[in-house]
Amino acid sequence: MPDEGKFASRREASGRTADWGAFLSGSQEAYARWLETMVEFSQEIARFAQDRWQEDMAAWASLAGCHNPQEAMACQRQFSAKAAAQYSEEIGKLLQMMTRMAGAGFFSPLQPRKSAGV
C-alpha cells in the first residue's frame, strides 16, 4: 500500500512550485511596468527642467534689458507668475502619472494569494 504522506508532500511541493512560478512571472511583469513608468516619469522631469532652464535664461536676458527698477519689478513679477503656473501644472502632470502607476496594479502580483479555504 502506497505511503499517502509521500504523495501529499509531493502535491504540496508541486503546488508551491506553481505558486512560486506565478509569483516570479507576476513580479517580472510588475517590474517591467514599473520600469517603463519610471522612464516616462524621468523623461517628463528632464523635459520640464530643460523648459524651465530656457525660461530662466530668457527671464535673465529680459531683466538685463530693463532700464529702471519699475521695469525690473514688472519683469520679475511676470517671470514669477509664469514660473509658478508652470510648476503647478507640472506637479499636476507628475501626480497623474503617479496615480496611473498606482492604479496599474504594479504590486498586485506581489500580494499573497488567498487560498480557497480562507
Entry summary:
With 118 residues, the chain is an all-alpha fold. Helix content is 81%, strand content 0%.
Structure description:
- With 118 residues, the chain is mainly α.
- 81% of the residues lie in helices and 0% in strands.
- The protein has a domain at 34-105.
- It starts with a helix and ends in a 15-residue tail after the last helix.
Distance between the termini: 33 Å
Average of the residue pLDDT scores: 80
Most strands sheet: none
Which structural class fits the helix and strand makeup? mainly alpha
Indicate the low-confidence ranges by residue numbers. none
Radius of gyration: 28 Å
Bin the helical content: over 70%
Q: Determine the number of helices (DSSP H or I, runs of at least 4 residues).
A: 2
Number of DSSP-assigned strands: 0
Tell me the overall shape. rod-shaped
Query: How do the helices and strands follow one another from N- to C-terminus?
Result: HH
Indicate the proportion of strand residues: under 5%
Chain-wise SSE layout:
Elements: H1 4-64, H2 69-103
Helix pairs in contact: 1-2
Keywords:
118 residues, mainly alpha, 81% helix, single chain, 0% strand
